[in-house]
Amino acid sequence: MSRAQATAFAPASVGNVAIGFDILGFSVGALGDRVSVRRIDRPEVSIAGITGVAGELPLEAARNTAGQALVAMRAALGLDFGFEMAIDKGIPLGSGLGGSAASAVGAVVAANALLEAPRPLIELLQFAMHGEAVASGSMHVDNIAPSLYGGLVLTVGIEQPRVKQIPVPAGVQAVIVHPHMFLGTREARAMLNKSVGMADFVWQTANLAGFISGCYTSDLDLIRASFEDVVIEPQRQALIPGFAQVRAAAMAAGALGCSISGAGPTMFAWSEAGSAEAVRRGMVDAFAALGTQTDHWITAIDGRGARLEP
Ligand code: HSE
Asked: What strands lie across the sheet with 257-260, from one edge to the other?
């Protein structure tokens, strides 16, 4: 007999990582969402409540990322029972830290523990993707995959996704600085140009290849040289007051790179452990100089993905 109730924690994540728009992301274990799921006889998905830093989130399953993920799971597996869930949000809404993805991932990981025959992670990824689509209007996996698998994760393909956990050089840390402002993912996607010029395409491709190669070979110079988004960041940076100053402060303090976390407004930097504190100070002070309050973290990038809680 399978369990009747389970709770899962799913970490926050940084999508894009500058040069991997919609395909690259890393988990941030310092914060996350917690989802409790209970098996019910009624063949439906319902949301009993949302607590934490929730803001205004819909309780209707079809309009909620976690709800829609379980609707997709039930339909794909032909389940004759339903789920009721409670969501405890630890990730601020509209922060660019993968909150909608984490709720969807937490829901599928908890619900998976209630199945007679639990499904592999790659299937859970696909169910959670349906949830993410509710929030952003498109199926992208750069937050779902790291929240589910943990660490720096590349996903290739949408219909048949292939997931690869990329090694991060020893001693490299991430600095995360969340300014207290809201940015909607849907709007930050809608504003993007639909085409890319040839020169930018070549530059961005080179940077992504260089970045991934640098990670596999622990070549920090190559990572630093490749850590530049020439396509998305130039279009979105105007949405974040202080972007240029914050980025400049991070780089002056020795960061390997600094960019927008997902759709923003959170910004992140990678740095060697010895400079992480100075990078954080520079970024926080640059926001503060404009009167913007922040929350901030320094974290390793070898994090664990979503997991069940006892
Ligand atoms: N890759 C997505 C974007 C992440 O930048 O729009 C948003 O969650």
From this structure: 257-260, 267-272, 172-179, 294-300
- Residue type at position 76: A
How does DSSP classify residue 119? P
3-state secondary structure of 217: helix
User: What is the Å distance from ligand 1's center to 308 Cα?
Assistant: 26
Please list, residue by residue across 134-150, b when 16 or more beta carbons sit within 10 angstroms of its beta carbon and e when fewer do.
Answer: bbbeebbbbbbbbbbbb
Q: What is the pLDDT of residue 224?
A: 98
CA-CA distance, 176 to 200, in Å (whole number)?
27
Is residue 60 predicted with pLDDT exceeding 80? yes
Residue 98 identity: G
pLDDT digits (tens, 9 = 90+) for 216-243: 999 999 999 999 999 999 999 999 999 9
Q: Read off φ and ψ for residue 201, nearest 5 degrees.
A: -60, -45
Output the six-digit token pair for 226: 């490749």
For ligand 1, pick from 27, 140, 194 the residue to mutate: most ligand atoms within 8 Å of CB. Answer: 140
pLDDT for position 1: 56
CA of 16 to the centre of ligand 1 (A): 7
At 159, is the pLDDT very low, low, confident or very high (cuts 50, 70, 90)? confident
Domains of the chain: 5-165 (3.30.230.10), 172-300 (3.30.70.890)
Is the separation of the CB atoms in 3 and 113 below 8 Å?
Answer: yes
- Which amino acid does the sequence have at 77? L
